[in-house]
Amino acid sequence: MSKNIIEARSLVKYFGSQAVINGVHLEIPEGESFVVLGSKGAGKTTLLGLLAHFLTPSAGDLFIQGQNTKVVGEAVRKKLGYIMDKDLFDRQLNVEENLWIYARYMGLGSAEARKRITECMRFFEIADYQDSSIESLNTFEKRCLRACRSVLHQPKLLIVDELLSGLGFLEQNFLTDRLLDLKKQGVSIIFSTDSMMEADRLADRVGIISAGKLLLEGSPSKIIENEIGFEVVEFDCREDEVEYLVSKISSTYEYRNRGTKIYVYIRSGQDSRNVLDMISGEEMSLRRARLSDVVTKLELSH
Amino acid sequence: MSLQAIKPIFRLSAFSPKAFTSLEKNFHIFLQRWFLNSFEIVVQPVLYFVAFGFGLQKWIGSIDGLAYPTYVLTGILMATAMSTSIYESAQGVYQRYFIGDLYLLLKTCPVRFEHMLFGEFLWSVFRATLAFSILLIIGSSLDLIAVTDFLPLIAICIWLCIFFASLGLLLTSLVKTYSQVYQYLPLIVIPQFLFCGVFFPIERLPETIAKICSVLPVSIAVDWARDGSFMDNPILSFSYVLLYLLFSFFMFNIASKRISEILERNSEVMK
User: Fold this and answer.
1) Which of B21, B107, B112 faces A54 most closely, judged by CB atoms?
2) pLDDT under 50 in chain A at which residues?
């Protein structure tokens, strides 16, 4: 049986009187990559902050490599790398110096820090920028630097918050490849993203969070199959048609609607052509079900 | 005050080797522009020394058997120790921890804010001692201070810096805005600069003010530095040393706890 790299039990986080994370249970085995999906404001960043022992839970327990973070305290952060969704760099220091100071904060000795900085800069292909100022880096280079910094101390667990958002396709691909390389080296990864394509590439399992609750957990294909089926018909109709069309569809198919936009979920054994007949004349699309449909469905269910 | 409330001021948890990382970082940044930074920290005291020491020498001649430039230089040395250490621990710490969100990065590392603040405290003492030492070398090159006096003078400087670095941190822990941090200047630095025997003996002041000033750390340090009077009354001298070190310890602990709590609170609402 594989050991869990991280285990959260009934994690709760209040900001004021609002429960931003509400009773999250999570177990991630060593070597697994787990992707947290959810819409903006669902609680992804807060959950990752809690799992990284960056935020203090209002209630519940967190175990990293079997150690209770309440007992171990800040020392547990040496076991994990946390890529926050912010560019936190000391602008008085250049790229290499930023890495150097962080390595020292992480408790690396001088020689080890030098060695790891060289290795990690090569790994993320930023060695050419070692003497550059932070200001001279573009968004992608800064993301690479963030990622590079987080693995200097060779953590067994990497928690990655929105590293890819706003990047181009090739840049997202590059960073996803690097994360997959780390995974091959045995690093467990917890990753939050809006990009479903990268989620598909990275995830052994996904967790879908909404309003601070982890609603679903499992392999991407299982979740899609269970929640959506295998196809989705998506169409827009006139406002006065919504009620009529919904009444026609709902007797046979599961659906959700956002105003005049209607999503019809086709389960295995059901025929999408029947839906197409029902809504003939409307502008619509028929496609394979994907993770984003699960997120949309959950959002529209609440 | 409950025992629970008093407990934090006796804690030793901030005193960790991890503090040296914060010292290392500040030192590294200082070294990047070492010449300019060294120039920056001594230019003001040198200007005061030249203007008052040499400018007024003709009229004043000597005080307490010391040529006026020597008299002023020893005073300015102690005032520099005070102002540099309090500047770093008040304004410097506020800039590094309360402006921007770089402090958040520390929360991804196996360190505590308390450790980092102890590092800031050490840096304040170090930087002030560095400024003091440069001035000593200048004084010595002008034959105003004997090289043999360097060690005792540096010891007095460190004692003074420990007190003012702690006081600066305490001030930082109490203020709410950047403009409030500056108040260490009119509240602490300028009064001691003017009334603690830097330019003239405090006995010339009205009796009550003189009595108050005589127990302030800069006055005590200036006295010890000028006439080597530390061993004239060793019990009293050691009492002052211990008393102010004890004050410093309490101030540092209270400040460290308060600042850590504020930073923890701020980082909890990072979004």
Assistant:
1) B107
2) 1
